[in-house]
Design brief:
Elements: E1 29-30, E2 38-42, E3 56-62, E4 65-68, H1 70-73, E5 82-83, E6 89-92, E7 102-111, E8 127-131, E9 141-142, E10 152-157, E11 176-183, E12 195-198, E13 215-220, E14 223-233, E15 240-244, H2 249-257, E16 273-275, E17 280-285, E18 294-299, E19 314-327, E20 333-346, E21 352-360, H3 361-366, E22 372-374, E23 384-388, E24 393-407, E25 410-418, E26 434-436, E27 442-450, E28 463-465, E29 471-472, E30 478-482, E31 490-491, E32 495-496
Parallel strand pairs: 9-14, 17-22, 22-27
Antiparallel strand pairs: 1-11, 2-3, 2-6, 3-4, 4-8, 5-7, 6-7, 7-8, 10-11, 10-13, 11-12, 12-15, 13-14, 14-15, 16-17, 17-18, 18-21, 19-20, 20-21, 23-24, 23-26, 24-25, 24-28, 25-30, 26-27, 27-30, 28-29, 31-32
Length: about 500
């Protein structure tokens, strides 16, 4: 799949492709009259980084159906094509994302395409959301045909108006619109079949980040018809790419009419995974943990925010402030805690970080959150392992325990090499995933790296060092770290005490 940014309103890319420079709807103005069919999709999880909860645009096509971009519905935790969401809603028929119009809960989503489709994703970036209750808003019709080049279109949305994601002023709550044209496809260098190139050639009128799913409208008598929905930018200072919805009118109409009812995807059990946005974690308890002890969150040392531990060193008892949503079976938060202390982190000897949470084991148990047992025995060659990622469970096996693993100036010892298999192929973003033992409740190890391009001992290219000093690096080979050294260092109250007898973590004073 070619690299292209999506105009998605989430904290991170969520398995999509990076962040996009700001493309404020310049040349546009605040809308003075509401469009009954225009709406704001407010997914709730993952929560967009704005107070109004807006993530994408939607258009009402029928009393219980709205259309948006597929990558907007891809915000479901496991990236499923079809399924039942949690906490999704739309506000339609209002100029403002915070008040007015009608609010309805989304109870089902149907995505035409996903990023893993062999037939491609671009040009098929559309999804239907079914509403739990009907809305009274007057629907918009789908245009009868693809608008010709240079056709006038109207675009609109609540996308960002500046590029500072931490500045509330960059997130308008009032609908904005602009009149522009459909450019020839050749104007957009990344246009795929089934896409419209919309906006001024220099990008001075274009859709903005968090306008995904928003409409390109053409005149239909005295009203409007929907020709396209925002998919992503063509680049900086360039028009925007819209999926041509006229190409998918048959699929849309078949789903809305009930002629075609796509089956729900089978959702993997991802209970207990903690989304750390770029890394993964899990809540673990040591053998002597008590219900009133603060819970501990385990992830990689290289996943800490801010300063990483230096080679040969550890970070101990540092302030922290990090959200920890603990997933239920379908990946939605069963409970949410906050990491308020970095108890320990190192990338030497092993690659681990332990955060103390603001909730106890007893509190998490009362909320039904999954807590894993921290393993006390080393992983051995041949041991079955399950990699607990946020959207799937990967079936792995320990192929070998290698004496030393080196990467970018760090060295870990007794590292776990996975056997190469179709079911165990980690990628960037899986760092910190728990490696579960055969019982499914014991964290036996923690995934931390894989060799990206065959390089030797460089960042993202770990190499094995044998006892005789032989260095080996193999592209795509994945590795995890042992965790059995952690338990001897845990004291009462979930404190890490490096002076305890038997503690052998980096920095130990015992």
């Amino acid at each position: 799949m070619r690299s292209r940014f999506l105009l998605l309103g989430a904290v991170t890319a969520l398995t999509l492709v990076g962040a996009v420079p700001a493309q404020a709807i310049v040349g546009g103005t605040e809308s003075t009259e509401a469009y009954s069919f225009m709406g704001s999709f407010q997914p709730g999880f993952p929560a967009p980084p704005r107070a109004d909860g807006h993530g994408c645009g939607v258009e009402v096509l029928a009393p219980q159906w709205v259309l948006t971009a597929s990558h907007c519905a891809g915000k479901n935790p496991t990236g499923a094509r079809t399924g039942v969401p949690r906490g999704w809603k739309v506000r339609v028929g209002s100029l403002d994302t915070t008040s007015g119009g009608e609010v309805a809960e989304v109870d089902h989503y149907y995505r035409l395409a996903t990023s893993g489709d062999e037939g491609g994703f671009w040009g098929k970036d559309v999804a239907l959301l079914h509403l739990k209750t009907p809305v009274r808003a007057e629907p918009v019709r789908i245009a009868a045909a693809t608008p010709p080049d240079n056709s006038p279109v109207r675009i609109m949305g609540w996308g960002m108006t500046c590029d500072d994601s931490k500045n509330p002023a960059c997130y308008p709550t009032r609908l904005r619109e602009a009149d522009t044209v459909v450019q020839p496809a050749s104007t957009c260098k990344n246009a795929s079949p089934g896409e419209l190139c919309v906006g001024r050639r220099d990008g001075s009128v274009a859709a903005s980040n968090m306008d995904s799913g928003g409409p390109a409208l053409v005149r239909d008598g005295d009203g409007w018809a929907l020709a396209g929905v925002v998919s992503g930018p063509d680049g900086v200072h360039a028009p925007t790419l819209y999926t041509d919805v006229t190409k998918h009118a048959a699929w849309i109409n078949d789903v809305i009419s009930g002629k075609v009812v796509p089956p729900d995807d089978e959702i993997p059990n991802v209970e207990g995974a903690v989304e750390l946005y770029g890394c993964v974690g899990s809540v673990v308890r040591g053998p002597a943990a008590k219900p009133d002890d603060p819970a501990l969150l385990l992830t990689n040392g290289h996943c800490v925010l801010g300063e990483r531990p230096a080679p040969g060193a550890a970070l101990v008892d540092r302030p922290a402030d990090r959200l920890a949503p603990i997933a239920d079976r379908q990946g939605y938060p069963q409970a949410t805690a906050r990491a308020n202390r970095l108890a320990y982190a190192t990338m030497t000897g092993t690659d681990i970080a332990l955060y103390r949470l603001d909730k106890t084991y007893g509190q998490l148990a009362a909320e039904g959150a999954k807590v894993f047992q921290l393993g006390s025995n080393p992983v051995r060659a041949g041991d079955p392992l399950t990699m607990a990622y946020t959207s799937e469970r990967m079936n792995c096996r320990a192929e070998a325990v290698v004496p030393h693993l080196r990467e970018g100036g760090y060295q870990q010892d007794d590292s776990i090499r996975y056997a190469t298999s179709a079911g165990c192929k980690p990628w960037p973003g899986t760092s910190g995933s728990a490696l579960l033992a055969a019982d499914g409740v014991t964290v036996a190890g923690i995934h931390n790296t894989h060799n990206v391009d065959g390089g030797q001992c460089t960042v993202d290219n770990p190499c094995e060092v044998a006892r005789d000093g032989t260095v080996t690096s193999v592209r795509d080979r994945g590795y995890g770290q042992q965790v059995y050294r952690i338990a001897p260092c845990l004291a009462e109250g979930s404190e890490v005490d490096l002076s305890r007898p038997g503690c052998a973590l980096t920095g130990a004073r015992g």
